[in-house]
Amino acid sequence: MIPITVVDVSDAEPYVLEVLRSGVIAQGPMVKRFEDTFAEIAGVDHAIAVNNGTTALVAAIQALDLQPGDEVVTSPFTFIATLNAILEAGATARFADIREDDFCVDPEAMAAAITPRTKVLMPVHLYGQTADMGKIAPLAEEHGLALVEDSAQAHGAKFDGKGAGSFGLGCFSFYATKNITTGEGGIITTNDAEIADKLRVMRNQGMRARYEYVMAGHNYRLTDLAAAVAIPQLAKIDEITAKRKANAAKLNEGLAGITGLRTPSELPGRSHVWHQYTVLIGDDAALTRDEFAAKLTERGIGNGIYYPKLVTDYDAYRGHAQVVMSETPVAAKIAQQCLSIPVHAHLTDDQLDTVIGTIREVLGA
Ligand SMILES: *Cc1c(COP(=O)(O)O)cnc(C)c1O
């Protein structure tokens, strides 16, 4: 089986041992090192580590002091955490359709979704490519809205040379299968010193100094043990990204010209970090998407559907007081057609050839 993801924490051992031997296993100097290194990668002044990516999103929204009924406009084609975080933070979610070329929220649809209650625009940089920040950032500015970037899949991605997570409040995940991992972990990036300070206090029970509580806070802290796992990965993030980019280029070349199969692309001005390599299987393909997925599994090619349904397509959210339903036909169609195949940094040339050869064979190309 050629797996869809490989978790590589092989270089972590000395750093984890260093933490174990130090006796400081909760939040300490390794978290600080993780934050400083990641701030540099994202190109921001501040990075605040938290215990997972969902928490990063919740904390970012909480830091904006929204009132009940205030709205966050986001994409319906995302991992469920995007929506859950909005709801947990007490805001109302409203959805804008996505674009077919980047799978991210469409700036025009976002503009149309803005109401007098809108307070936040929350693009999701899906699969490792940023949304069209050249249009979304000015839109936020023009309407006086905060920008929260769900950057969970986009470590090191760029738009016009600017890092994902550097346009507003960037929320990253370090879950096991993300491009960089701490097992479970998250980080919020920002250039706003005041918000950074607030997030640091919020994550630690609202405590500014020992037993000096200045807000109702939480325990959102990451452990030094977890942070240690990511240190060596951060040191070689450029290498990891370069390998993913090279793999995507090989797949794009090898899978070109197959009837009914659309390969993904890195759009001009964007640097895609290829968290996922996602193809679309159209009506004119030799197999349906689900038949294609089953055939790949049968032939030992790992694959995954990210995501089979829109986040609004679950009973749990239907009729939810904080969820505004809307028609998003492009996202609905893509959820039916998408399939991700292996692009991770551990693929060998032989494995890439096998992936390409198998796909050409099962689609009769
Ligand atoms: C992984 C992910 C999250 C949540 O991160 P966790 O660390 O799993 O809590 C949020 N949004 C998107 C788009 C993700 O892929």
TrEMBL record:
InterPro entries, per the entry: DegT/StrS_aminotransferase, PyrdxlP-dep_Trfase, PyrdxlP-dep_Trfase_major, PyrdxlP-dep_Trfase_small
Active site per UniProt: 178
Superkingdom field: Bacteria
The UniProt record lists the keyword Signal: no
Cofactor(s) recorded in Swiss-Prot or TrEMBL: pyridoxal 5'-phosphate
SUPFAM superfamilies the UniProt entry points to: PLP-dependent transferases
Gene3D superfamilies from the UniProt entry: Aspartate Aminotransferase, domain 1, Type I PLP-dependent aspartate aminotransferase-like (Major domain)
UniProt keyword list: Aminotransferase, Pyridoxal phosphate, Transferase
Residue positions, PTM N6-(pyridoxal phosphate)lysine: 178
Pfam family, one: DegT_DnrJ_EryC1
GO molecular function: pyridoxal phosphate binding; transaminase activity
Biological processes annotated in GO: polysaccharide biosynthetic process
Family: Belongs to the DegT/DnrJ/EryC1 family.
Name recorded for this polypeptide: DegT/DnrJ/EryC1/StrS family aminotransferase
